[in-house]
Specification:
The structure holds two protein chains of two kinds. Chain A has two domains: 2-31 and 263-292; 41-255, Rossmann fold (3-Layer(aba) Sandwich), CATH 3.40.50. Chain A is 54% helix and 12% strand. Chain A has helices spanning 2-10, 14-31, 41-52, 70-86, 101-116, 138-147, 149-152, 190-201, 211-217, 231-245, 247-250, 257-292, and strands spanning 58-64, 90-95, 129-134, 179-184, 205-209, 227-230. In chain A, helix 5 links the parallel strand 2 and strand 3 (129-134). The longest helix of chain A has 36 residues, at 257-292. In chain B, a hairpin with a 5-residue loop joins strand 5 (218-220) and strand 6 (226-228). In chain B, the strands form two sheets. In chain B, strands 1, 2, 3 and 4 form a four-stranded antiparallel beta sheet that branches. In chain B, strands 5-6 form a two-stranded antiparallel ribbon. Chain B has eight helices and six strands; from the N terminus they run H-E-E-E-E-H-H-H-H-H-E-E-H-H. Classes of the chains: A alpha/beta, B alpha+beta. At the A-B interface, helix 2, helix 4, helix 8, helix 9 and helix 10 of A face helix 3, helix 6 and helix 8 of B.
């Protein structure tokens, strides 16, 4: 009986595992099971820094990601922008990824225009925020921005001359920013912002990165990176802090996309741990069987 | 017809019947997208009307809207977009079962669309915005970018990168292919020079500095004195030992025997732990991607979830 079960498990088609994983992810989505996470120190530091900065501080929002990494980074970008909006900071959106342009536009539409576009003090384009668009040249573009923004990009994404925008008054380079917040999916991204702008110019920088990239960026924390938000877990941590500090409206589930992805993540991890244990158990059982029947 | 083909034929039929029922038999529909017309100048919603005498609006933008919004109109382009995205997602997922023509089609579309997007973006952002605006601002203003400043002056230094860029294509002509090496040499030289300085600063000096840590850390206590911070001390000891053991593993001038062998073995363990962490974080990212696609399929397309 046990031997037959072992034979069946040895011959198990991998597609059953794919199906099990799909079910583990799908069930929490359909049942809308979310997950909160206890914030880690690198995430807390970024949150505290945005809280600490006085109203109207200039923050460069470098959105270096594309639709393939949006699953992890878009909720993060939304959370960062919401927090900066609540604190009334001046935001300068930029990307060094050609595919990052729609990500900026989507963030502006989903946060700035939706949450802060109306009311007593609406966010006004060119006064409170600007979309500098895509900067061609990869890491060299960062270097150029560090010395002269207008040389790197004389016009904004709408084609308006930067000198005509009130928000650009007194801004000559990245050095004039109080903080760089980078959502990074790879090269060029967080590492290049640290190497080409933050470290040589001594500008505070915090990075929100994909899980894959985080092991490359952790060595920079806490000396060269003020904060580091890692993958979807980091995004959930940030949303948790935002919801705790500003429950109205950020405790609402519709404003917490990462939270809703956290439940699926948790169940998928449980399944994966179970499968790893099962796989090793099968391996050990096979070895034991070979010793019994060499 | 073998058993497998029969199974998949039944599955496709069931799926198609379900989608047909959802689309035409329920109020919810499948992938239906609605928009409201907004006057771009005033930001006011323009109510749908068939009255030809209604005042004309200069610029109209379309914003997403709920189906039950009285001013909402059905959007063909957005609905088609959702359906195409959903079907392409299913095509890609089909690879998990077996390589097939639907997967190949979706893969080819991704490659083609990505290449097209990059070409168009770089045409506007590099060739027009960075080259033509610098070399011929009047032409750029007249033909491409009307907001190019009227007082912009031509900067003929930009001829150099244009010539170097054109020289890359010399590699296609065997007789002058040697000229194609010059721009490459320029790129390699400048990148190496730039990287060397920045890397030395950010990744060498600062990283060494970050590793010089006190092994025993004392922090201020509540009584005003100082007390041993055990956790921070352990953290610092682990960092220092890990760095030294990894460096020993990559130090090949001494044979890895005895004490050096044991330390380098510890270095292997440290590397294995870091690879394990990388792998786990990669898995986390991939599961998030799967979550996003399933959210799209079951929320945006099928409308089963209302987040």
């Amino acid at each position: 009986m046990t031997s037959r079960l072992l034979d069946k498990l040895n011959m198990l088609d991998r597609r059953w595992i794919f199906l099990a994983m799909a079910m583990a992810v799908l069930a929490p989505i359909l049942l809308q099971i979310g997950s909160d996470e206890t914030p880690s120190p690198p995430t807390i530091k970024l949150f505290d820094e945005i809280e600490r900065l006085p109203e109207g501080s200039r923050i460069l929002m470098a959105m270096d990601f594309d639709p393939t990494s949006a699953a992890e980074l878009y909720p993060m970008a939304l959370a960062f922008t919401r927090h900066c909006g609540v604190r009334r900071h001046k935001l300068f959106f930029v990307t060094i990824w050609p595919t990052g342009k729609p990500m900026i536009e989507s963030t502006i539409k989903g946060v700035i225009q939706a949450d802060f576009g109306s009311g007593d003090r609406p966010y006004v384009y060119g006064v409170d925020y600007v979309n500098l668009g895509y900067l061609a040249g990869d890491a060299v573009a960062i270097s150029q921005m560090s010395s002269d923004i207008r040389k790197a990009r004389p016009q904004d994404a709408r084609g308006t001359n930067l000198d005509q925008l009130p928000i650009m008054t007194g801004v000559t380079s990245v050095k004039d920013m109080a903080l760089i917040v980078n959502a990074s999916a790879g090269f060029p991204g967080g590492k290049e912002w640290v190497q080409y702008a933050a470290t040589p110019q001594n500008i505070p920088i915090a990075v929100g990165c994909t899980g894959v990239q985080s092991t490359q960026l952790f060595p920079y924390y806490p000396d060269q990176l003020l904060g580091l938000v890692t993958g979807i877990r980091g995004a959930i941590e940030y949303e948790t802090m935002l919801a705790a500090k500003y429950p109205n409206p950020y405790a609402d589930r519709s404003k917490r996309p990462a939270f809703l992805r956290g439940g699926a993540q948790r169940w998928a991890h449980r399944l994966m741990i179970g499968l790893i244990v099962l796989g090793n158990g099968i391996h050990l059982a096979n070895r034991y069987r070979r010793t019994l029947h060499p | 017809m073998n058993r497998e083909t029969r199974f998949w034929t039944v599955m496709f039929l069931c799926g198609s019947l379900f989608l047909a029922y959802q689309s035409f038999g329920t109020n919810r529909g499948v992938g239906q997208q609605f928009v409201v017309r907004v006057d771009a100048t005033t930001g006011k919603i323009i109510p749908p009307t068939t009255d030809a005498a209604a005042p004309a609006v200069k610029t109209v933008i379309y914003e997403p809207a709920a189906k039950d919004d009285p001013e909402a109109i059905w959007s063909f382009s957005r609905t088609a977009g959702i359906w195409i995205a959903a079907l392409l997602t299913l095509c890609i997922f089909s690879y998990l079962y077996r390589d097939n023509v639907c997967y190949k089609l979706a893969e080819s579309i991704i490659v083609g669309v990505s290449a097209g997007y990059w070409i168009v973006t770089n045409y506007w952002e590099v060739l027009i915005a960075k080259v033509l605006v610098k070399l011929a601002p009047d032409v750029a203003r007249y033909a491409f970018l009307p907001d190019t400043p009227a007082d912009a002056k031509a900067d003929y230094l930009y001829v150099v990168p244009v010539v170097l860029g054109c020289m890359v294509f010399c590699r296609l002509i065997p007789k002058i292919s040697w000229m194609g090496r010059w721009p490459l040499a320029f790129v390699v030289g400048t990148t190496a020079g730039l990287k060397l300085i920045l890397f030395l600063n950010a990744d060498f000096v600062r990283q060494v500095r970050s590793t010089v840590l006190p092994l025993v850390v004392f922090s201020a206590s509540a009584s005003g004195g100082s007390e041993l911070d055990l956790i921070q001390s352990i953290k610092n000891i682990v960092i220092v030992i890990s760095v030294l053991s990894c460096l020993t593993y990559f130090y090949f001038s001494v044979e890895h025997k005895g004490l050096v062998g044991r330390i380098s073995r510890l270095g292997i363990w440290v590397l294995m732990i870091s690879f394990g962490a990388s792998f786990a974080l990669t898995v986390m990212g991939r599961i998030t991607l799967l979550t996003m696609r399933l959210q799209f399929l079951f929320d945006d397309w099928l409308g089963f979830v209302r987040i």
